[in-house]
Amino acid sequence: MKRKAVRLSIFNHKGGVGKTTLTINIAAALAKLGRSVLLVDSDPQCNLTSYLIEDAVVNSLLDHSDASNGQTIWSALKPIVEARGGQKKISAIPLNIPKLHLLPGDIRLSEFESELSDFWSACFQRKIKGFDGTSALSSLVDEVASGLNVDFVLYDTGPNIGPLNRAILMDCDYFIIPGACDLFSVRALKTLGVTLRSWIKDWESISAIAPDGAHLLLGRPRFLGYIPVRFKTYGKVIVQTHARYVAKFEKQLHSDIIAFLRKLDVSLAPQSVQHSKLGEVKDFSTLIPLAQEQGTPLWKVVGGNETLVREADKAFKDIAEAVIQKIETN
């Protein structure tokens, strides 16, 4: 099946960088610019689903995900895990934001993840079940995205470098790295670069020996850019301590991600940090709880600080425009 939709992940295995909030707001900004988006809640914690859907609906989805009429990602992948045939068809949920749909997550995705290591090993043995299992989520997204004719797929991922995130990143056309203004975000880049390089090289080896007819992941996630997040400002100037961490983050980003990936293939990353900044997201802390309560992007919050709402609207519009521009010129 030919892929129309561009697949993206806001990925950093460090927790606390607001990946779910970024994913929702970038998706909503893309939709506001006229692009249709499928959100995929591929984190077993289900934060994206819980953010966007009322609690009663989430509880019903989770309570019935094992049933024949289940409609979560786990419902679709369960037959693969239990070796009872191919994936089950499910439908995406239309959201109250035009052009946005959601494939709801499930805490039982952790059971799918526990099988992915065995599926990956089976790929090295040229067993078709390995390829079917490794690409099961990709196949599900293929079908749903094609049926909706969306322009973008955005995966929401958990804060780890486990087998599930490996399968997701290997399915993505691009990934975006968010980074908080702290030492841990800087240190996390080295592990991320080494891990991505290992995943890409492993999948190259797997693809080279794949049997005819095997469903292959793309296996070439390209670094689209980075977003500094949750920095504080004084007026319009970034607080000095945060500015220092941004400088450290950019230095490590070049050595541990950009240079590292370009040694593997120059097409996997831009030439420099200067060409990879997509925008920046300041500390919108007073809007975050309101947005979560209302299940809405920051720029649609009712009752929040109007200045912050306008700033959030512009920040994510700028990021969405940068994402579109970079992809269209790649």
Summed up, the domain count is 1
Number of strands: 10
Largest sheet: 8 strands, mixed
Low-confidence stretches: 231-239
CATH homologous superfamily title: P-loop containing nucleotide triphosphate hydrolases
Helical amount: 40-55%
Overall, the morphology is globular
Distance between the termini: 22 Å
CATH architecture name: 3-Layer(aba) Sandwich
- Counting H and I runs of at least 4 residues, what is the number of helices? 12
Strands across the major sheet, in which order?
Answer: 3-4-2-5-1-6-7-10
What is the average per-residue confidence, as pLDDT, rounded to a whole number? 90
**So what's the CATH class?**
Alpha Beta
CATH topology description: Rossmann fold
Cα Rg: 19 Å
Helix/strand structural class: alpha/beta
| SSE order, one letter for each helix or strand | EHEHHHEEHHHEHEHEEEHEHH
- The proportion of strand residues reads 5-15%
Break the fold down into its secondary structure elements and pairings.
Elements: E1 6-10, H1 19-32, E2 37-41, H2 47-52, H3 55-63, H4 73-81, E3 93-94, E4 100-103, H5 109-124, H6 128-134, H7 136-148, E5 152-156, H8 163-169, E6 174-180, H9 183-209, E7 222-231, E8 233-234, E9 237-238, H10 240-264, E10 281-282, H11 288-294, H12 306-329
Helix pairs in contact: 1-12, 4-5, 5-6, 9-10
Give an account of the 3D structure.
- With 330 residues, this protein is α/β, with parallel strands linked by helices.
- The protein has one domain: P-loop containing nucleotide triphosphate hydrolases (Rossmann fold), CATH 3.40.50.300.
- It is built from twelve helices and ten strands.
- Strands 3-4-2-5-1-6-7-10 form an eight-stranded mixed sheet, sandwiched between helices.
- Strand 6, helix 9 and strand 7 form a beta-alpha-beta unit.
- Helix 4 packs across helix 5.
- The chain is globular, with a radius of gyration of 19 Å.
